[in-house]
Amino acid sequence: MSKLIYFVDDDKMILNLLEYTFSSRDNYEVKTFRTGEDFLNSLDNNPDLIVLDHSFVLAHTASKYTNGLEILHKIREKNSSVPVIALSGEHNEEIINEYIIKGATKFILKDSYFIDSLIESIDEVFSEAEG
To answer: CB–CB of 47/67 below 8 Å?
Structure first.
């Protein structure tokens, strides 16, 4: 049975990379979202995992969510158990700790190898859920 993964990021190139990388893997169904609102409107479809970017630079939209922490708060109001992996291009211990306190499963920095780290983390989350 395939696992539904939601990716939320305002960067279209990152979303394209994530969709390409994970759609080609067996047993993964991928949905991508560029705004918190679009994502939250689809949360009732019960994804098996959410990958959420921290920073939203959405000057071209009227988004009411300015970062992933605000969206994580909304996720936890609706679903306290879905695994959430947070991504960020900035290394800030305070932000990392805030995500973990608010219920993120993992925090990954967007560095040169973040796709490898993300693949490993997603495989780990699904292995733990099955085992």
So the answer is: no
Residue span of the structural domain in which 107 resides: 3-126
CB 96 within 8 A of CB 107: yes
Domain membership flag for residue 36: yes
Confidence of residue 61 (pLDDT cuts 50, 70, 90): low
Give the pTM.
0.92
Which 3 state secondary structure label does DSSP give 15? helix
Domain presence at residue 54? yes
Model confidence over 3-17: pLDDT tens digits? 999 999 988 999 999
Instruction: Report the alpha-carbon distance of residue 103 to residue 55 in Å, rounded.
Output: 17
CATH number for 69 = 3.40.50.2300
Beta-carbon neighbour count of residue 122 at 10 Å? 21
Number of domain units in the chain: 1
- Helix boundaries (H) for the chain: 12-23, 36-41, 68-78, 93-101, 114-130
Does 97 fall in a domain?
yes
Q: How far apart are CA 39 and CA 37, in angstroms?
A: 5
Q: What distance lies between CA 71 and its chain's CA centroid?
A: 10
